[in-house]
Amino acid sequence: MKIEIKSSFRAFLPDAVARFEYLHPTVQVEVGDDHVILKSGAPYAAVAAEFKYVLYRQKIFAETLQLRQELIRGILV
Q1: CATH at 10
Q2: Three-state SS at 38
Q3: What pTM does this model have?
Q4: Inter-residue contact 48 to 41 (CB < 8 Å)
Q5: 30, 60, 62, 75: which sits with the fewest CB atoms below 10 Å from its CB?
Q6: pLDDT per residue rounded down to tens, the chain (77 residues)
Q7: What's the domain count of the chain?
């Protein structure tokens, strides 16, 4: 199953793949320049949805990290 990855998500792909592989060790992940291929015996919709969710969460985590660090520094100082 091939999932196209939008350019706005590509920077977060390596970390998302690492997390996804940890959470789903039975799914094989192959990364291309603008896509990911997932090989699994599980239903496509479930695996694809879970991968997209992990990728989205990684993007949000990275984009809000500085804000969260500043808030914590403000509370502790």
Answers
A1: 3.30.70
A2: strand
A3: 0.87
A4: no
A5: 75
A6: 899 999 999 999 999 999 999 999 999 999 999 999 999 988 889 999 999 999 999 999 999 999 999 999 988 87
A7: 1
